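pasting for the record
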Amino acid sequence: MMNNLIEQFPDQIIESLEIGEKAVINAHDKEINRVYVAGLGGSGIGANYVAEFIRDECSIPYCVGKGYSIPKYINENTLAICSSYSGNTEETLYAFNAMLETGAKIVVISSGGKLIEAAQARGLDYIQVPPNSPSPRACLGYSVIQQLFILNKLGFIKDTFKSALRSSVDQLKFDTDDIQKSAKAVADRIYDKIPVIYTTDRMEAVAVRLRQQINENSKMLCWHNVIPEMNHNELVGWTEKHPNMAVIYLRNNDDFKRNQLRININQEIIGKYTDTIIDIFSKGNTLIEKAFYLTHLGDWISWYLSELKKVDAIEIDVIDYLKSELGKV
């Protein structure tokens, strides 16, 4: 059951720390001046988290790709990370094969499959995470934390993320009852509406994650946008009554003051067109703690929505159908 997988998230963080500490990542024979991560879905969203976590520390660009092709700038000075929980994600395998021709430093994160086999056969560095999860989207901790360790072992970030992760575990375990209670209360308010998720630019990965979890676990459509960007376009779209929409703001008490002001004004404007506006504030001292708190709460929201909608949170038949049809060609 998906609820059991969500419950295990704090323990997954601990396990991921242990895996990362033991991982061996060899130095590259060329200077690395950029990072490119190939990954999709539950495996790809981890890279979005990492890009936000390291923005104030890592001195080289950290780019994320979610398709078949790779950019021309990937070369022998690139650290190329391929992240696929199954190891068989079609698009990531295409990108991996293209990277082999570039001279890039390739590191694989996977539980097995073709990616691990290829890495082993070619003598590439890889980190193997525990297999057999019925849902790759429930393995976010593995993806995020192994990418952080790769950067750490290659000297691009310091060790401070480790203490932040341990503090995050303590926070999630201490607040587990309140998190579930809050999540159920939100789900009760939005289960018959279209969720619209807004947050600031430092938390977009968390908003994307919540959107994806509502899509997959709750079998519902929704969308997200970020502040301040949406103040330059989407805000103008709020010009008529939308009683079927529920607007959720993912917030931090230390959000940039101008963004906090923008959110307050946004709510004044949007409040004229929908009665359902919900603020969800993070807890924690670091960006990692705050992001994982909101992520865990959001995962629980998606679970309670699935219960209210009476759908199987793990089932993804339409994606399986898509893959089977692609496999025929």
